[in-house]
């Protein structure tokens, strides 16, 4: 396993839609293992493949520190809301260091996809796991969570980013 470099805000791969996975092979298994190790090393809750420069529809997650939390991966995820109830909570991103902003998401979602062997996977998730699914799937669609903010709040956060030590012009 290898800890991969996490791409940072401004890298075009973060705004690129990832391609569907069609080959479930050893390379995919290695990618998933590397992503889990990278996420753990960075202290994240989730990590999408394009955050490590790979435009494939894969994300990993670790919500085990919450009640009924799960750890694993999802390939070719597709989600839909269950009901209209939303949650608002602090959301950050490993690709946008030191920024955490209250972001509205659906409270409960149903997600389906595949595991590393290509077997179908589906689950219903609420709370942090639901937030993670929505956030990571956004990444795979080339959407950063900043797009989910109001224009005023996004403007404030962008001003913070522009003055951040990690942001290079």
UniProtKB/TrEMBL annotation:
Fe cation binds at residues 93, 135, 139. The keyword Iron applies. The active site is at residue 136. GO terms for biological process: translation. Its EC number is 3.5.1.88. Keywords: Hydrolase, Iron, Metal-binding, Protein biosynthesis. It catalyses: N-terminal N-formyl-L-methionyl-[peptide] + H2O = N-terminal L-methionyl-[peptide] + formate. GO terms for molecular function: metal ion binding; peptide deformylase activity. Its cofactor is Fe(2+). It is an enzyme of class 3 (hydrolase). Pfam families: Pep_deformylase. This is Peptide deformylase. The lineage of its organism: Bacteria, Bacillati, Actinomycetota, Actinomycetes, Mycobacteriales. The gene is def.
């Amino acid at each position: 396993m290898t800890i991969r470099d996490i791409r940072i805000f401004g890298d075009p791969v973060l705004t690129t839609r990832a391609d569907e996975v069609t080959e479930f092979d050893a390379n995919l298994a290695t990618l998933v293992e590397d992503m889990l190790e990278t996420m753990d090393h960075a202290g994240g809750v989730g990590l999408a493949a394009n955050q490590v420069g790979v435009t494939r529809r894969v994300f990993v997650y670790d919500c085990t520190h919450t009640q009924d939390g799960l750890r694993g991966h999802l390939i070719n995820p597709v989600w839909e809301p269950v009901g209209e109830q939303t949650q608002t909570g602090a959301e950050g991103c490993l690709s946008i260091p030191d920024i955490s902003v209250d972001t509205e998401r659906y409270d409960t979602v149903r997600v389906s996809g595949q595991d590393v062997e290509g077997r179908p996977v589906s689950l219903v998730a609420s709370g942090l796991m639901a937030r993670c699914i929505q956030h990571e799937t956004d990444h795979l669609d080339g959407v950063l969570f900043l797009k989910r903010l109001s224009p005023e709040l996004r403007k404030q956060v962008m001003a913070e980013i522009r003055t951040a030590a990690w942001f290079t012009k």
